[in-house]
Design a protein that fits this description.
36% strand; 19% helix; single chain; Rossmann fold; six-stranded antiparallel β-sheet; alpha+beta
Length: 296
């Protein structure tokens, strides 16, 4: 956890495209910031949702051109924006306001927004640092795809595949051969996403570790594994697997086929996500509220 350090002179506003009738709210938020001497920039899609004309910028450029991002939407919108921030090499904090269904990451409630914004402008807001994954797809050692993700990278079988057959190594040491419906590599933040559904553990985001969780493993002794976050993880499909059709998905947003001669290399990203969080609410309270954890 760290306080905001530099003055907030320019705020970017990002809203999920299907937010609905929110023009009045977006304009009120922009007016509130402008009244405090803060410049406001909308990403191009969000500007179309507002009633008044505001300065706009493409989303990929906005993330590194502002001092704070106020995000209105759900966790999917936050994941996409966090990945953009990391790929831009920026350290822009995100204040996520929940307009989605679960809101595990976008945990700020609408009635709290202006009080928390005040604390950000005063430099007293609570900002959590969340580790991210740097994922490279390699073809004969050549990087053909390069992304950063907040939650997870998932390797799964295709619709007609019997299962995946994956070889995994950590720091050049062979770990295991995973015969399963797929494999999840998750951050501690992503432990409450697909990892949790696949039977992986909940890991506090302050723990400096990554999770390796097989999906429906065909060997009962293949259990989730927690590894140090400074590890280099390499995964590749085994070419002798029968009817193997493999896909790799980043943060549940974008998926691509993974040829048998390609490798997936996962390391800790240089950038961490800076997430503005309510001071009065602990991580355990969020678990109880959002997941009904330990309550049923």
């Amino acid at each position: 956890m760290s306080p905001t350090s530099s003055p907030i002179a320019r705020v970017g506003i990002v809203a999920k495209p299907d937010l609905g009738d929110c023009a009045d709210f977006l304009d009120a938020l922009a007016d509130w910031l402008l009244a405090r001497g803060v410049a406001v920039v909308f990403d191009a899609q969000s500007a179309a949702l507002a009633a008044s004309r505001h300065q706009r910028m493409e989303a990929d450029a906005l993330v590194s051109a502002v001092d704070l991002i106020v995000l209105l939407g759900g966790d999917g919108t936050l994941l996409l924006t966090a990945d953009r921030v990391a790929m831009a090499g920026a350290h822009t904090p995100i204040l996520g306001v929940n307009f989605g269904s679960l809101g595990f990451l976008t945990e700020v409630r609408l009635p709290e927004l202006y009080d928390i914004l005040d604390s950000v402008l005063l430099g007293t807001a609570r900002i959590d640092e969340r580790a991210m994954l740097h994922v490279e797809i390699l073809d004969q050692g050549r990087i053909v795809q390069d992304v950063c993700v907040l939650n997870d990278v998932v390797i799964t079988r295709g619709a007609l595949s019997r299962m995946t057959d994956l070889s995994v190594s950590v720091n050049d040491q062979f770990v295991a051969r995973f015969k399963a419906d797929g494999l999840i590599v998750a951050t501690a933040t992503g432990s409450t996403a697909y990892n949790l559904s696949a039977g992986g553990p909940i890991v506090h985001p302050g723990v400096d570790a990554f999770l390796l969780t097989p999906i429906a493993p065909h060997t009962l002794t293949n259990r989730p594994l927690v590894i140090p976050a400074n590890s280099t993880l390499v995964i590749h499909p085994l070419q002798n697997a029968v009817h193997q059709d493999v896909f790799v998905t980043f943060d549940g947003q974008v998926g691509h086929p993974l040829p048998a001669d390609h490798r997936v290399r996962v390391t800790r990203a240089q950038q961490s996500l800076r997430l503005v969080r309510p001071k009065a609410r602990s991580y355990y309270e969020v678990l109880r509220e959002k997941l009904k954890w330990a309550e049923r």
